[in-house]
Amino acid sequence: MRSGLTVKAAVVPLALAVLSVQGCSAQPGEEEPAAKSSGPAAPFLGNRGYALPDTPFTRDDSVVTATCGMGARYAAVTVRAWDPETWQPRAERTFPIPGDAAFTNHAGAKKVNSPLVDLCGMNADNPSPYKVATLEYMAPRVRALFDLAFTRMAVVLRDPGNTADSRVGYVVSGADLDEVERLSGAPGADEQNAVMSPDGRSVWFTYAAKDGGQRIGSRSTEGSHDLSDEGPAAGHDLPLTVMGKPPRAVQADTVHLAPGGRRLTAKAPKVFGNVFDTWKSSGALTSRSAHRATLLSGCVGVVGWTGDDRVLCRTSTGTFRVMDARTGRASGAPISVVGPHDGRVAEGMLVSPDGKRFLVAVHEPNARRSDDAYAYRKPDFRVVPTTGSGETTGVVNDLLDTYTVFLTWS
Question: Is 37 strand, coil or helix?
């Protein structure tokens, strides 16, 4: 059965985003976030150093999706783990959205940058708070809202008594609507871009410092929740992704960590390149902070890594190519998902953990969903071989619609 929550009428579906890029657990609420490891810090091992609970959301060969639903007096994000062979759900969790959370930008409320707005609150009058709203850009942003085990979701909270203030917090899966954890109460706060650390033990964000500068900060989910300054930020316009052990933040778009953890893909204004070395401190991706940048020729959207030295891209011609992350050159033939006269476009979503398949969404260019909040549109999701040969299969289940965001394929 489909969830009793209905989808907000004016939301622009992620799978139908404008292509404007330039050149079930029985008691999920009782699970603890991933445990801390007693081993030494290893800044180049990516997220592999974290011990995760054994659930359908963390087991090998699971696809995890997120959908935002709205009722008359209730809003929530539903996260599901899927079997990628049968496309039957293995588990489901619900994260309630408190009434003061910024899940949409509207007149009379402070405009807030948050991936939750990408997931829940876009419409024709209130576009994405970020400059680019294609799937390759939005899916990594939404993924960063959750810890590795999908037990907690970060939120930005507007102060109902002072619309100029915004603070961060988080909700636990399966919690009641009023059980949001507020991590800050200081007057005059300007905290945005809230995302979770990999272990779920801290919320990271961008904030306005007292000297007027923009910084990256974090607040522990335990103890006093005091502000920890983590490094320089490039304002609120770019999202955050937190990774590694110990955790550190990268402020950029299309962030995908390589399997070995030593490199990542990222995109930022005025930065030349797509692939960079990871670094030990937190900060915004800039021309100064970028290390050993590699430009992927013709890449307009990174889908993910097919190996430690290969990246799958959507190209400027509308096809997909596997690129060599060291040289930036294509290492295989173009992969066509739709024909040149089909009239539709394809956007990449996820790469399988073995690098042999990837998920795409096919839709009309610049298409938007019907204004009917109760309408259901069957999406066109497909699994495509990265080799360019082999069978393409459809992804079909009534729980999947054009609002579904594909987050991980483990």
Answer: coil
User: Tokens at residue 234, please?
Assistant: 């490039």
As a whole number of angstroms, the distance between CA 277 and CA 293 comes to: 7
Q: What is the pLDDT along the chain (410 residues), one digit of tens a residue?
A: 334 344 443 333 333 333 333 333 333 333 344 434 333 434 445 788 899 999 999 999 999 999 999 887 789 999 999 999 999 999 999 999 998 898 888 877 788 999 999 999 756 556 788 988 888 999 999 999 999 999 999 999 998 777 789 999 999 999 988 789 999 877 889 999 999 999 999 999 999 998 889 999 999 999 999 999 999 999 999 999 999 989 999 999 999 999 989 999 999 999 999 999 988 899 999 988 887 799 999 999 999 999 999 999 999 999 999 999 999 999 989 999 998 888 899 999 999 999 999 999 999 886 544 444 444 568 999 999 998 678 999 999 999 998 899 999 99
Please state the separation of Cα 138 from the chain's center in Å: 6
Do the strands 357-363 and 381-385 form a parallel or antiparallel pair, or are they unpaired?
A: antiparallel
Burial 362-374 (b: 16+ CB within 10 A, else e): bbeeebbbeeeee
Is residue 112 within 8 Å of residue 129, measured between CB atoms? Answer: yes
Cα–chain center distance at 332:
27
Tell me the C-alpha distance between 295 and 305, whole Å.
Answer: 15
Q: 241: part of which helix (H) or strand (E)?
A: strand 240-243
Report the 3 state secondary structure along 274-332.
CEEECCCCCEECCCCCCCCCECCCCEEEEEEEEECCEEEEEECCCCEEEEECCCCCECC
d(CA 263, CA 258): 5
Angle at 311 between CA 306 and CA 317, to 5 degrees: 120
pTM of the model: 0.88
